[in-house]
Amino acid sequence: MKALYDLTPFTLLDFPDIPAAIFWFAGCNLRCTYCYNPDIVLGAAHIDEESALAFLTKRIGLLEGVVLSGGEATLYPNLISFCRSIKSLGYKIKLDTNAMRPDIIATLLKENLLDYVALDYKAPSSEMIRICGGGSEHRFWESFHIVQKYGIYFEVRTTFHPDLLNEAQIITMADTLKNKGYTRPFYIQLFREGVPTLGDLPSCERVVDYTLLKRYVTLRN
Ligand code: SF4
Fold first, then answer.
1. Which residues of the chain have pLDDT under 70?
2. How does pLDDT run across 160-213, given as a tens digit for each residue?
3. I need a labelling partner for 114 at 20 to 30 A (CA). Which of 25, 45, 68, 212 fits?
4. 37 lines ligand 1 (CB under 6 A)
């Protein structure tokens, strides 16, 4: 079955502490205006599972992990069985997800198929349609509570474009996370200018109070 839009054979940056490959799943259930991967979100899969697993078989002993990214990996209908196959080769799995499929995340965790989860906390409810074209903050919290319950390594992150979210909203999100028992860093990924995005975004012109933000979040470029 065609699973991936693309495959990055090696990264030291995307899976904490281990060398990994990145599997880019085609398609997404959101349409974030700042999305850097319009080709993957709108494109079709053209790498099948067998080829991806053959690649991993050849890299046993060289790589230790696989990052499931995209697009949105949890939309792939055969994901559970694909993850079982990846695990049977001895790899750790990290899921990068927009958190809109808590049911799939729960199944993966129940089967002990995930070693690390990066959850996007996109925006407060009131901004989801404007920024992401859909989705819900409620589903983010469902995913959050599921991951928290299983006690595996996970992180929460938000992409920050100063014209889409302001400092007060980010601080409220950070406080809410803290009140829900989140004690790890809340990562803010700063929007990168000059790359193609799904939406038509203006350049960021507003001056941001990063000194204030740094009291509540961990900034990431
Ligand atoms: S940034 Fe948004 S649209 Fe792009 S892949 Fe992630 S969730 Fe999907």
1. none
2. 999 999 999 999 999 999 999 999 999 999 988 888 899 988 777 788 999 999
3. 45
4. yes
Cα distances from 172 to residues 21, 212, 217, in angstroms, run 35, 13, 11
Both tokens of 8, joined, read 């990055």
Burial of 136 (C-beta count, 10 Å sphere; 0-12/13-18/19+):
middle
Report residue 213 as tokens: 């933000």
70 within ligand 1 shell (Cβ under 6 A): yes
User: What residue ranges define each of the domains in the chain, with the CATH number in brackets?
Assistant: 2-220 (3.20.20.70)
Are 160 and 170 within 8 A, CB to CB? yes
Give the pLDDT score at 86: 98
Hey, what are 50's tokens? 């067998």
Q: Report the C-alpha dihedral over residues 187, 188, 193, 197, rounded to 10 degrees.
A: 80
For residues 5 and 84, is the Cβ–Cβ distance under 8 A? no
* Ligand 1 centroid – CA 64 distance (Å): 26
Atom of ligand 1 nearest to the CA of 120: 7
Closest CA to ligand 1's atom 2: 32
Q: What does the alpha-carbon distance between residue 104 and residue 100 come to, in Å, rounded to a whole number?
A: 9
